[in-house]
Description:
The longest helix is centred in the middle third of the chain and has 46 residues, at 76-121. Helices cover 87% and strands 0% of the residues. The two termini are 61 Å apart. It is mainly alpha-helical. It is built from six helices and no strands.
Amino acid sequence: MTNTDESRAMALQDRFAERIAARLSEGAADVPYDISERLRAARMQALAKRKVVKTSTVSTTVSQGGAAAMTFGEDEQNGWFNRIASFLPLLALVAGLLVIQFVQDDNRIRELAEVDAALLTDDLPTAAYTDPGFLEFVKSSFDAGQKQQ
Length: 149
């Protein structure tokens, strides 16, 4: 329950109590004096308890300060669990990125190995290896072979 929900609930309870008090006050004129005094004393006790409960809740929240805002009203054990659990998606993201990087590096190494193997197994004159356009030729023939598969 959030703070606004709690304050809304408290406001509704206060309005309900005021309506009940108004109805009781209307019929108080017909009640004998001794009963009205006992009712007044009981009302005062109820109001005193209500004020004590309100002030103790406020003082607990104020004494906790920032800790109350950080744990959102949860006990300390659940707070630690939630903090640890909030880092799990971040760890999964980092692990996923590392796996992607590893796979990409592995694919690039395989491509280069295939080009090197094609160069070493092909029958070419020695002058072809020193030609500046040779690397471009090998890449284009390799790409054409990949498209055919």
